[in-house]
Design a protein that fits this description.
mainly beta, 8-stranded mixed β-sheet, globular, DUF1618, DUF1618 domain-containing protein
Length: 151
């Protein structure tokens, strides 16, 4: 398992999911608009294909996702995990769904030029994302209500 691409989400007192996002690898037949989720739910492991839904009009979607590299995974409320690639964007998913889907949102600001030199861990190229969520009257968050702060 890739530590940077694996997140844990707890819902209520007795539901827990461990999820790893797999966007590339030895599976050459994976379409560019799909990823895999390795999930541990209810004590059982499963591997699910998840379609990627683009939430913006950014160009080059296939190229962006073929080079995806997860920098961190952030839980958003008790229903979603947010995988972050500080060069490209975020992917949101409810890993408790039986047929999970990934919502891709590209970052609105171009990364510094030094991001292209391959030194992702250089202090000069750092970006950070903070996810917060607002809830409706029923206590549930919607993807439209997730607030992302990019620095």
């Amino acid at each position: 398992m890739d530590v940077r691409a694996t997140g844990i989400l707890r819902r209520g007192d007795d539901e827990l999911v461990v999820a790893e996002l797999i966007t590339k690898g030895s599976d050459d037949d994976m379409p560019p608009n799909e990823a895999k989720l390795l999930l541990l739910r209810s004590g059982e492991w499963s591997l699910k294909r998840a379609p990627i839904i683009h939430r913006d009009d950014g160009g080059g979607k296939g190229a962006e996702l073929s080079a995806w590299e997860t920098d961190m995974v952030v839980p958003v409320g008790d229903r979603r995990l947010c995988w972050v690639d500080l060069h490209r964007g975020i992917m949101l998913c409810n890993p408790f769904d039986e047929s999970p889907r990934l919502q891709y949102v590209s970052l609105p600001v171009e990364p510094p030029k030094s991001f292209d030199d391959g030194r992702r861990d250089s202090p000069a190229t750092k970006r950070s994302v903070c996810a917060a969520v607002t809830t409706t009257g029923g206590g549930h968050a919607d993807a439209r209500e997730i607030i992302l702060l990019l620095t």
